[in-house]
Amino acid sequence: MMKKLIFFVILMVGTISLALAQTKTPVVRHVSSNYSSQSSSINVPTHTFNAQLRKSMNQINKDMKSGKLTQSQAQAARAKVKAIRVQELQYFKANGNKQLNSDQLTKLNQSMAQLSL
């Protein structure tokens, strides 16, 4: 009986010491306030626009697989979406960063609206 009690006490002490020994590793984030404010306010429309492009491409693929579009119609629609993406990349290059100004975003959204998807 005494051996069982000693074994139980040692087991509990070991379990408690292991539980207390676990500490969280601190995470240090080095983000300048200038960068974080730019990315949160300006990149949101750019990200949203890119999501629309991806959604359009996915919809084209779904429509082709379901038979709503022929292969040639799907290719033409993809070419239009890719042309809009090329224009977006040209805007990025002209701006010197991966952000769009409001005029550029308006033009790209108008181009997306002209797609008949």
Explain this structure to me?
The chain has 117 residues and is mostly helical. The chain has a domain at 41-117. The protein is 78% helix and 0% strand. Helix 3 (43-66) runs antiparallel to helix 4, helix 3 runs parallel beside helix 5 (102-114) and helix 4 runs antiparallel to helix 5. The longest helix has 25 residues, at 71-95. Mean pLDDT is 80; it is low at 31-42.
Could you give a quick summary of the protein structure above?
This protein has 117 residues and is mainly alpha-helical. Helices cover 78% and strands 0% of the residues.
Output the radius of gyration: 28 Å
The secondary structure category is: mainly alpha
Low-confidence stretches: 31-42
Strand tally? 0
What's the total helix number?
Answer: 5
The CA-CA distance between the termini, in Å, is 79 Å
Secondary-structure element series: HHHHH
Strand content: under 5%
Largest sheet: none
What is the approximate shape?
Answer: elongated
Tell me the layout of helices and strands.
Elements: H1 2-21, H2 33-41, H3 43-66, H4 71-95, H5 102-114
